[in-house]
Amino acid sequence: MNVSPQAGHARKARIAAALLSLAALTACGERSAANAGAPASAPARASAPSSASTSASTTSFSEKGVTVTLSVTDWQASKGTLTAVFTPEEKGFHLYSTDLPADGIEGVGRPTAVSVTGVLKAEGGLTAAAKVRSISVPGVGAPVPVYPDGPVTTTLPVRADGNGEATVLLGYASCSERDGCTIPVSDRPVRLRITADGPVFDAR
Fold first, then answer.
1. What's the CA angle centered on 94, arms 88 and 116, to 5 degrees?
2. Tens of pLDDT along 1-47?
3. Taking a C-beta distance cutoff of 8 angstroms, is the pair 198, 57 a contact?
């Protein structure tokens, strides 16, 4: 039986299309089998502990008109940096200099203070990432050193004498030249533990 050239071409085209479809189905099956052995969600589950570990070295609280956020960074060989960010909750309020005397100047103001006790020790002095300016307060003979209105970031280099319990003690007061001052906070404790993996703040 003679087959026309057109019929021959059509038959070849159908065979080629069938072979391509079979190859595509085989490839999809291989990819599905590979995916079944390695779920895409596995990496996300593995990263969860890292996130939890990061959050454990940070804590915050709000008291007497100021929110304080604490964190420990650059922890290596039992040493690191304790950072405390003091943020007044109302606009127009400032914090006092870390160099202010403990009782203020003629009773006005309280210093921004961060200290540590327990197995955690300070390796240097407290520094603030803000420039001090002086203001005049009615009834006070000397100028009072304060930071510009808004948040102030302080840092304290620390080291641990082994694993165990430690406490961060915080002091501050916020004030507005127009609205007056909030009640001062003195030696407000925040507990943490020094572990083999580094500092961990206690859950509040």
1. 70
2. 454 444 454 454 454 444 444 343 333 333 333 344 444 333 333 33
3. yes
